[in-house]
Amino acid sequence: TELNVVSGQCGYSIVQLSVVEQAGLRYVRESGAGLRVREDLTMDGAADAHGVAWTSKTIIKHHDDVSESERKCGDLVGRTAKPGDSVSVHFIAQSVATKVELLNTRELLQQPFELRMGRAFVVPELEQAVKSMMVGETARFIFRKEIMPQFAQLATVLRRSRRFAAESACGSESGHSCCAHALKNDKESEALRDALGSDLALELELVKVEAGGTFDRQSWELSWSEKVQAVLDHKIAGNTAVGRKEYADAARQYEIAIGLLESLRLATKTEELDESVGVGTALEEHVPLLLNYTLCMLKLSNFSSAVEHATSVLRIDPTNTKALFRRGQAHLERGRDIDLALADLDRAHELQPENSAIKHLLHKCKRVVARAAAEDRQRFAGMFGS
Question: What pLDDT digit, counting tens, does each position of 304-330 carry?
């Protein structure tokens, strides 16, 4: 049914009202001059039988309103997602009861959240909502409180990922920043707990849909043999980037490879893997990858992360001179724990006494220690002198 009406308190405008009833659902769409397209969905008590997970849907921005400059996916604008597709969405989640914002992917991830359609997703209701949308559309959904435990699980996983990135980015002068991250995490966890008995409001923007087979798969989508090959490929890509002195790109490549190796290592503990897959060969790359990542962290002045990853190598191989050298360098460069730097470099020198780079850095470290001792003597002399 379509009906033209005249309305508006601040002047009159022509509004087109469309009402569609289908399968127990009632869609109402209004459009007109000066009014963004809005589509409201309400459902009766039997609507659950049709697989609808939300109690209401309001379209804030319709795909027809997307300008040419906003079209991120060419012919796929206006396309709905299908099983096997990869979708990119932004969403803002809010507790209906407390009105507290629980998750904002723009702030948390600083990029769209990727979802594979038709997979066993932790929040299947979110996938159902995405299926009702078209690319370029923004809509607000209200979900029943029963989905909150699954949503809390998703939010926790995403925040852990954010926290790992934040902690690895904390350098020697940013301890206060890490503490701020920890405090924020505590508040966010408390907000999630408070919202568990509340309905969930979710504002979703469907940014992009990529058809199955046209996008790079995530690590959990790869077979064991594909993961092994991906480890080697990412290591080569990282080495190439280091050769170009593109250390940030190299670090990303090594980080992906290390993550893949971790999943392979865990798999060897829980299941039998065919030796022909080459897992053993891939696992031998663990120490070289950690060392390469440590080098990138040094070049990027991320000394705390360099110490962390060099220490990971030394847990595996306590006599690894590269790890001792690079951890000592990181301690020295960040200007604290000079005694730890001296201990690492002394040990590296014992293992490789003819290594000129180790000798040079050890000499520099000893000069720093001697200068600090002289400054301390001078300071104490001033304090206690007559």
Answer: 999 999 999 999 999 999 999 999 999
CB 38 within 8 A of CB 128: no
Model pLDDT for residues 165-201, shown as the tens digit of each residue: 555 455 444 444 455 545 455 676 787 888 888 889 9
Q: How would DSSP label each residue in 263-281?
A: HHHHHHHHS---GGG-HHH
Which CA distances in Å does 81 have to 72, 86, 134, 167, 202?
15, 8, 7, 35, 18
Shortest CA distance to 115 belongs to which of 102, 129, 101?
129
Q: Which of 153, 156, 89 lies closest to 121 in space, CA to CA?
A: 153
Smallest CA-to-CA distance from 155 within 118, 113, 111, 120 is with 113
Output Rg (C-alpha) for the chain, integer angstroms. 28
CA dihedral (87, 90, 96, 101) in degrees, to 10, reads 140
The H-or-E segment that residue 301 falls in is none
Residue where the block lists tokens 């060392």 = 291
Strand ranges in the chain using DSSP code E only, listed in sequence order? 2-7, 13-22, 25-32, 35-43, 54-61, 86-95, 101-104, 113-116, 138-143, 200-210
Q: What is the mean pLDDT of each run of 10 residues along the chain (386 residues)?
A: 33 37 40 39 38 69 58 50 86 91 88 84 83 85 88 84 58 46 61 85 89 74 83 95 95 92 76 66 91 96 94 95 97 89 95 95 91 73 56
In the chain, the amino acid numbered 289 is L
| β-pair partners for 29 | 18, 39
CB 156 within 8 A of CB 125: no
Q: Select from 118, 129, 194 the least CA-distant residue to 155.
A: 194
pLDDT at 385: 55
CA atoms of 289 and 286, how far apart (whole Å): 5
d(CA 378, CA 372): 10
